[in-house]
Amino acid sequence: MNAALWVILVLVVGAIALAVVGSSRASRNRAAASLADAKADARRVIERLGGQVLNLTGSDDASKQAMADASERYNAAASQIEQATSVRQAQLAKDSAVEGLYYVRAARQAMGMDPGPELETLSGQRSAGAVTEDRRVQIEGRDIEASPTPSGRTPNYYPGGRVAGRPVPAGWYSEPWWKTALVAGAWGVGSVLVFDALFSGMDGVGYSGAQFENGYGQGFDGGYNAGFDQGQSQDAGGWDNSGWDNSGGSDNSGWGSGASDNNSGWGDFGGSDFGGGDWGGGGDFGGGF
Questions:
Q1: Among candidates 130, 150, 97, which has minimal Cα distance to 272?
Q2: What is the mean pLDDT of residues 51-75?
Q3: How far is CA 54 from CA 116, 205, 230, in A?
Q4: Which of 284, 280, 276 is closest to 90 using CA atoms?
């Protein structure tokens, strides 16, 4: 009788072990299939961007700069997808490529061409809004302009998104003033003045001066105003295009620009602020606020 019980016990334990092994194998297979699907989806967008980068050449300063940014996103996305070991990393590589397609779209518009089909919305893009009027301000001796359309004075495009936690509206700018924060992962106090001067009172943007804090927890509105309740909602939230470690890129657009969503680092990914990832980045844009 005891022998029979031992046989039954061994069989039960064996059956449980087989079930566990089978379940684990099935789980690994599902994970591998999900990763393969995510990488294939990312490569589809990356190849589309690569075709545009190879076949489209800018004809003026604005379109040339936009295509240079598109090429940078293509190189970033191609590197990211080769090193991706998770579905999330593959998605972030795709996001880099989508951000690059926004730059291609901007270049086509600058050249008076059909911009092509609508693109997937980047995380944080809607909440950031878009520049709706021309603005020209002087900050610390520097003239900075923003415009909804490209020109010789505003040749630098940004597709919109969160950079170092702040919404940067889509539009054309005289200089890429957001890139320092994209790489450093933080805004300087001077940038508060840039935001306030460029965007305060502008319809369609996701910035409110009273929602921008300095390092002491005080709010800025029209320069310097009283502080605000830090529990107050600062934005609709979203992904920063800026980069793989800039949770909240286009980035936009880098993998470790710690953020971009910009957009995005491997130099300047962000943009698209792409949150997550484990790859460190770099890039030195110099200057900044």
A1: 97
A2: 95
A3: 16, 33, 47
A4: 276
Q: For residue 268, which amino acid is it?
A: D
Dihedral sign (CA 85, 95, 69, 201): negative
Dihedrals phi, psi of 135, to nearest 5 degrees: -135, 140
Q: Which residues partner with 158 through β-bridges? A: 171
What angle do the packed helices 61-83 and 87-110 form, to 10 degrees? 170
Structure-token pair, residue 160: 């919109």
Q: Choose among 166, 142, 170: nearest CA to 157.
A: 170
Q: Are 169 and 160 in contact (CB under 8 A)?
A: yes
Q: How confident is the model at residue 93 (pLDDT cuts 50, 70, 90)?
A: very high
Nearest Cα neighbor of 126 from 238, 259, 244 is 238
- Between the CA of residue 61 and those of 67, 157, 283, what are the distances in Å? 10, 11, 22
User: Could you tell me which residues come within 8 angstroms of residue 255 by beta carbon, excluding any fewer than 6 positions away?
Assistant: 76, 80, 92, 243, 244, 245, 265, 266, 269, 274, 277, 278, 279, 280, 281
Question: What are the pLDDT digits (tens) for 179-208?
Answer: 888 888 888 877 888 888 889 889 889 876
Q: Which two tokens stand for residue 18?
A: 């087989």
Q: Quote the pLDDT of residue 18.
A: 80
In sequence order, which ranges of the chain are alpha helices (DSSP H)?
2-55, 61-83, 87-110, 125-128, 179-184, 189-199
The CA–CA distances, whole Å, from 12 to 15, 16, 17, 20, 57 equal 5, 6, 9, 12, 69
Which residues contact residue 166 at a Cβ distance below 8 angstroms, ignoring those fewer than 6 apart? 181, 187, 195, 207, 212, 235
Query: Mind spelling out the 3-state secondary structure of 96-157?
Result: HHHHHHHHHHHHHHHCCCCCCCCCCCCCCHHHHEECCCCEEEEECCEEEEEECCCCCCCCEE
| 208 to 132, 143, 146, 199: CA distances (angstroms) | 15, 21, 16, 8
The two three-digit tokens of residue 49, written as one number: 């961007």
